Amino acid sequence: MVSLEIDYIYFAELEMLLNYGVGYPNFILSLRERIYQEGLEESPYVIKADRKLFQNVHRFIELMESSDEPLEDDESQPIEKWWWHLHKVAKGKYPSLKLKEYLREIYRKRRKHWRQKSRENHLLLEGLKSKPKYLSFLWRR
Predict the structure, then answer these.
(1) In Å, what is the CA distance from 34 to each residue of 42, 82, 120, 133?
(2) Are 89 and 57 in contact (CB under 8 A)?
(3) Could you say which of 24, 92, 106, 125 has the lowest number of CB atoms within 10 Å?
């Protein structure tokens, strides 16, 4: 019987989720935690998957929030475990020096864009609070 390594499973699960929308975000985060515990963070599969997760953090959060068990950042986890703080990453509020160098470069390049996107989403939500009368049927219960 073929045995798959945890680093490859993490990579494959993340690929399936981000490419096809099939999978469980909370399982992926649990796999990432196990990789940390087993000291497999230098695996090429882990590095490739981590990069993909960072580049697609907003999509991953959307999938997390639409899953049966939506997850929020786990404040009980140390900040060095970035996978438990993806909302901070997506908002550009994660301390970049806590990241491995291969993630720091992605984060720094995209942080400005992510902050702008977060601000635009906030303004959009604020705009929805003033409800135009012609759309009032959307707010009826």
Answers:
(1) 13, 14, 35, 52
(2) yes
(3) 125
As to burial, measured by CB atoms within 10 angstroms (0-12 exposed, 13-18 middle, 19+ buried), residue 100 is middle
User: Per residue in 52-94, pLDDT tens?
Assistant: 999 999 999 988 888 777 778 999 999 999 999 999 999 899 9
Q: Are 105 and 51 in contact (CB under 8 A)?
A: no
The residue type found at 109 is K
Tell me how far CA of residue 123 lies from CA of 26, 95, 99, 120, 140, in angstroms: 29, 24, 29, 5, 23
Structure-derived torsion over alpha carbons of residues 50, 56, 59, 61, reported in degrees to the nearest 10? 40
* Residues sharing a CB contact under 8 Å with residue 14, sequence separation 6 or more, in sequence order: 23, 28, 49, 52, 53
Reported for 123-127, long-range contacts at CB under 8 A and 24+ positions apart, including other chains, are none
CA of 37: how far to CAs of 34, 76, 111, 122, 131, in Å? 5, 16, 28, 36, 49
Residue 16 near residue 38 (C-beta atoms within 8 A): no
